[in-house]
Amino acid sequence: MNSLTLLAQQTPQNWTFAWIVALGLFIALIAFSYGTRAGIIARATTKAAVRQPLFFLLLLICSTILLVNVFMPFFTLKEDIRELKNCGLATLLVSGLLLAVWTAGNSISNEIEGKTAMTLLSKPINRRQFIVGKYIGILQAVLWLFLPLVLLLSFFIFYKVGYDQRETSAEISPWFERVKVMGMSLQWPHHVRLAAVSQIIPGVVLSFFQVAVLSAISVAVATRLPMVVNLVTCFDIFVVGNLTPLMVSQGEKVIQSEFVIFVARLIATALPSLESFNIYAALARGGTVPPAYLGYCLVYGAAYAAATILLAF
Questions:
Q1: Maximum mean pLDDT: which of 51-55, 110-114, 185-189
Q2: Tens-place pLDDT, residues 200-242
Q3: In sequence order, what are the beta bridge partners of 188?
Q4: Who's near 81: CB < 8 A, 6+ residues apart?
Q5: How far apart are CA 38 and CA 53, in angstroms?
Q6: Which of 177, 155, 175, 151 is nearest to 165 (CA)?
Q7: Which residues contact 199 (CB under 8 A, 6 or more apart)?
Q8: pLDDT tens digit string along 126-173?
Q9: Can you give the pLDDT at residue 99?
Q10: Helix spans in 105-126 (H)
Q11: Burial letters for 144-163: b for 16+ Cβ neighbours within 10 Å, e otherwise?
């Protein structure tokens, strides 16, 4: 019995509170975009980010990578779907980071260097509204990039279940099954295929949280430094932020040096713990991520992003 069957047989978790929080955040985002002065800057930043060639280039490249991964053998002994999920989530993360850092450099660094920002700040818009508007606009652009890619990845995973079953001469799960809702017979996605798709939803959310944290850092750096330095800084923080738990554990267990342990803990405290936003271990076990963990990551990411935006002020 493979991990997909085990996942399909698990008792569904109560995601009601998580969906309520997501709906509340969406309503708050709409109210911010259309009800505040910073929201006007956010909408303009989003439109500029979506219209730039990089957006469509990332969309094309990532779509091609996702398509190639469907038919590429990973040689994982019937765990190709797991690797497709990992590669898909990694593709979403990298594309979102590139768009966020590039947009921050174009919309903040270039405007400050070209004195365009002075025109905005001379109007009834202060520095805080300018920074917050730019940050929210970047996140909205990342959302627009994530939306088609997530739909495409979900379809590919939905298809990959039957593709792998056919390759291994197993019983092929149908695309849809009949379910009765309030006495009505409806066509619903097959539970095995649907379970495989639903497993990536927490990963998509956590990837967006990670992009949000690094976007805040990129915005803060863009207020003082040019785009090239911004790219290098965010790349370094991305790499080190994913290695901080390993640095601390290796310092305590292998090196056992007080100075190394102190430096590792200092770096782990100052930099964001990006490893917390990864679900690769859960995917490897065929498990799911509980809504409570998503809530903890939301609070942590929001607190770190807020502190970084305060530094940008």
A1: 51-55
A2: 888 888 889 999 999 999 888 888 888 888 888 888 888 888 7
A3: 177
A4: 4, 157, 160, 161, 164, 196
A5: 25
A6: 175
A7: 7, 85, 283, 288
A8: 788 888 888 999 999 999 999 999 999 888 888 877 666 666 666 666
A9: 92
A10: 110-113, 116-122
A11: ebbeebbebbbebbbebbbe
Element (H, E) at 19: helix 16-35
How many angstroms separate the most distant Cα atoms in the chain?
Answer: 69
Q: Are the C-beta atoms of 200 and 127 separated by less than 8 Å?
A: no
Distance of CA 206 to the CA centre of its chain: 5
Residue of 42, 13, 88 whose CA lies nearest to 295? 13
- Specify whether the backbone of 288 is left (phi greater than 0), alpha (psi in -120 to 50) or beta: beta
For residue 185, list its beta bridge partners. 180
Could you tell me the end-to-end alpha-carbon distance of the chain, in angstroms, rounded to an integer?
Answer: 55
Distance, in Å, from the CA atom of 312 to the CA atom of 117, rounded to the nearest integer, reads 15
Measured distance CA(1)–CA(114) in Å, rounded: 61
CB 99 within 8 A of CB 141: yes
Contact 161, 81 (CB under 8 A): yes
**170's tokens:** 């197993």
Identify the residue with better confidence: 73 or 191.
73
Rounded (10°) angle between helices 53-71 and 80-104:
170
Query: What is the rounded distance in angstroms from the CA atom of residue 10 to the CA atom of residue 7?
Result: 5
The two tokens of residue 160 are 């990959």
- In the three-class reduction of DSSP (H, G, I as helix; E, B as strand; rest coil), residue 286 is classed as coil
C-alpha radius of gyration, the chain, whole number = 22
